[in-house]
Fold this sequence. Notes:
The protein is α+β, with helices and mostly antiparallel strands and 346 residues long.
Amino acid sequence: MIFAKRLILWYLENKRDLPWRATKDPYQIWLSEIILQQTRVEQGKPYYFKFLNAFPDIFSLANASEEEVLKLWQGLGYYSRARNLLFTAKYIAFELGGEFPQTHKELIKLKGVGDYTASAIASVCFDEAQAAVDGNVFRVLARIYGIETPTNSSAGIKEFRNLAQNLISRDDPANFNQALIEFGSEQCKPRNPLCSTCTFASECVAFNQNRISQLPVKLKKLKVQKRHFNYLVFLSEKGETVLEQRRGKGIWEGLYQFPLVETTAEASVENLVQEEEFQNYSLETIDGLSLYNDTPIVHKLTHQHIFTKFWIYSCRELPQKGISFEEANKFPVPVLIENFIDTFDF
Length: 346
């Protein structure tokens, strides 16, 4: 257990002062872990406080509407996390009487809770010795132990999980897990790690073999898909516009957007009006169709790059029930739409 002791000692001397480290309340730890999935700490911290302020306990969150939760989540991305958060809050509040499961085995059954999150909650809140393995942990262990198994392969996930489980402190699993993650974030960084002050430098395989940039190993990523979105921003004589809710299991499920015409390539006005989806909105225009941004706005997601144009469609009557311009910023929308609403002068 020498590894664990040295790691925890480093942590106690170097850890950041983060709000969720001052509590063992499973609600607050769960909330922080869901927010921090695929989100940097500095980006997630304001959302953590916003959610605690709006929903101080599991029952207040469970009684919220999906639109309230999505609106508060707006800008964090990966919105399925927010929907799972609400689903699990309802389950814990109404099925379990507000009591969180206390073991990794039971926690991992909750919607939106995977192995890492279950391990983090179990160790921090209930002192269960379950290793929490994320990207930081992969990097630290791959470099120190010279592991070349790809971290995003099933064999790699199993190997790193088993190693972390063997190394974890049985006496202090909470600090061990937080220490290993913190070490990867602050010391053994993806680029320019602080090797000269590293407590493990003498035995680190990557450092001693000059292979820091080669570890950890990852399988090649999926090819990024390019998509072309054309949003129709209707402006009626009555001062109303149209927002529609996205359906299905694609990106931004449940969020609102302006009517969308997706094309296979960047569209000119001549191309756009020929699209079947556009022709569904055959309306009498006032000033015609005008392009708001000549250069497409590129919104990058993990496996998709969205090239976006906003088309201003001034008309006498709307194609469906509308909302006032002032109401538009009350709906949960993708950050792409939020930025447009904030900058466009309705």
